[in-house]
Amino acid sequence: MPALEALIERKLQRLGVPLAVRLPSGRRLGPADARVTIAFKDMAALAPLASARLGRLGDEIVRGRARIEGSMRDLMRIVAALVPDEGQPIQPKPWQRLFNHLHSVLRHSRDRDARQIRAHYDVSDDFYALWLDPRRVYSCAYFAQPQMTLAQAQEAKLDLICRKLDLHPGERFVDIGAGWGALLLHAARHYGVDATGITLSQNQFDHVSRIIAEEGLGERVRILLCDYRDLVPDRPFDKLASVGMFEHVGRARMGTYCDTLRRLLRPGGLALNHGIAASGVDDAMVGGGLGDFIEKYIFPGGELIHVSQAIRSMSQAGLEMVDTENLRPHYARTLWAWSDALEAQLPEAEQELARSMPPERAAEVLQAYRLYLAGCALAFEQGWVALYQILLIHPDPAMATPDLPGAQSAYPFRRDHIYR
């Protein structure tokens, strides 16, 4: 395919960063000093590179038809140069918005949500343990001090959430999408709350249940295996957290999600929603097919909305936003820490995956996660996606403080309680 080779050669010359390509014949294209080489097993796999369809190129790498030679950090510098229009969101046409809405409705039933969550989180606990911190916190860390390790920054994030919610001993606290239980347990151990967590992941449920039993916390900490829509407590909670959860809800179910938060929270109570948001409004997607790759291999059913749409849905449900913080650069650093940890132990990671799936599938999953972690780190660095903590109250007109008669909650409308 001389024409395709010539096209690839021209594209490599126009890149602002050095990339090399090795053809199936063994011929090498690109600069001699390139720190990254993509080796292709057949010529057909070159087409996505020629057309900058990066999601499709990711497919070829996952399926073993192309191989990365070089570091993931260097590869992501190449990806940044290849993404069309510097990653600017692509606005969908009106018919695409209608299709997206209908698609969102269909893929977010209770059964499908459960299957989609388990497809990601139940891959292998030991695999996740290799590159997460010891608490297995699988969400954005908070590097309150630049020199913090990942583990320290994750503890700082857990404490930041607890302080934003102004947790007190004896309060009834619920964690929607509790993961491996880090926030649930931190709130119970350090703030003395009565804590309830829910998850759809069997692996996570088993893990948290074991810790609760080992530490004798059963009287005031519990984990439930259920959908957020099916949680019906005997009375509403005082405080609520939802971390890394609403990305899985779907645009079409956002109203139901926000109504559920309000139902679970007593009047005057506080809720914190910590989640990823799209950078573009109107369902815009990052170019190059990167979002499609993550949907296919990592987070089936995952959907991002803009923070303005999230706050609008929360407001329509009767919740009042009292504080919003963008932690986007913190997530870039978190993801690079995860990526570096995984890259440092690739043989062990593939071995752990192979314990729960066929070897060929384990190899594919590992390549998908390598691209996902580094690709998401790049996306947060470039501002293609963001991470917001949104603090909300369920207003109670009867509640007031001496100096703020219109507070409608215990929230002090000052941030000093958060950072003391």
Task: Please tell me about this protein's structure.
This protein has 420 residues and is an alpha/beta fold. It contains 17 helices and eleven strands. The chain folds into two domains: 81 residues, Nonspecific Lipid-transfer Protein, Chain A (2-Layer Sandwich), CATH 3.30.1050; 325 residues, 3-Layer(aba) Sandwich (Rossmann fold). Helix content is 45%, strand content 16%. The strands form two sheets. It has a seven-stranded mixed sheet with strand order 7-6-5-8-9-11-10. Strands 2-1-3-4 form a four-stranded mixed sheet. The protein starts with a helix and ends with a helix. 45% of the residues are buried. About 4% of the residues have low confidence. Its EC number is 2.1.1.79. GO terms for molecular function: cyclopropane-fatty-acyl-phospholipid synthase activity.
